[in-house]
Write a structure and sequence with these properties.
Oligomer: single chain
Largest sheet: 7 strands, mixed
Number of domains: 1
CATH architecture: Alpha-Beta Complex
Strand content: 25-35%
Helix content: 25-40%
Number of strands: 11
Radius of gyration: 17 Å
């Protein structure tokens, strides 16, 4: 099935102290270059759309050229929220697209084989998300007091990409706009219209670079993986 990858990296990097994490070096490439390469190396992905801040677009295009990215179709400007940024991205996908793979630009260590697994699962179930089982015990807290301890066996850390059939994702977008909802997770948007999401197990190296220590962890993992 024709799959379009929408890579979202339009945030302000507040928790990075204002440093633009997607343009930081990791291994021999920038973070966004590593991310694009993962999707470039997926046979199922036909095109890549980048959603970023307008000021970052020239640097992203230069990195794509340097990295030999051939599937980059377009770079477009993000919106005020993540959901709005994704919507800006999906407006750029080809009419022939059947599946949309939405990915955080700050997850440069995602493996192509795991992207392929998520795409395959979404083609069967309508939606999928990469994830890994939680390792720690999770507590539900209200007002500083523990109110519940859900069983770990049913808890997963959700990652990206999250992949959906185009039709069901568009239904979710219409529902969110109609009801004034703004989701921070794409699965929530699809769940809101009754869509089913399959949890595709990935691995723990697919970290999201959010804080300064994450970039050092990513560099270490990159050396081990490569």
């Amino acid at each position: 099935m024709k799959t379009s990858a929408v890579i979202v990296c339009a945030g302000n990097s507040t928790r990075m102290g204002g440093v633009n994490k997607i343009l930081m070096p990791i291994g021999e490439r920038l973070v966004i270059g590593m991310t694009m390469l993962a999707f470039e190396n997926c046979e199922s992905v036909q095109e890549i759309i980048i959603v970023s801040r307008r000021t970052d677009i020239p640097a992203i295009k230069a990195e794509a050229e340097s990295a030999g990215i051939t599937k980059l179709k377009e770079c477009t400007e993000g919106g005020a929220t993540r959901q709005q940024s994704v919507i800006n991205g999906i407006r750029c996908i080809s009419k022939e697209t059947e599946l949309i793979a939405i990915h955080d630009g700050a997850r440069p260590l995602v493996k192509p084989e795991h992207i392929e697994k998520a795409i395959k699962d979404a083609s069967v179930f309508g939606g999928s998300a990469l994830g890994v089982p939680v390792k720690d015990t999770i507590k539900v807290v209200d007002g500083g007091l523990v109110t519940d301890t859900p069983p770990r066996s049913s808890l997963y850390i959700t990652q990206t990409p999250q992949v959906f059939r185009k039709k069901i994702y568009f239904e979710g977008v219409d529902f969110a706009i109609e009801h004034g909802l703004d989701f921070t997770d794409d699965c929530q948007l699809v769940e809101a219209v009754g869509g089913k999401i399959y949890m595709t197990e990935g691995d723990y190296t697919n970290i999201k670079i959010t804080t300064p220590e994450d970039i050092e962890i990513a560099k270490t993992l990159c050396r081990r993986i490569l």
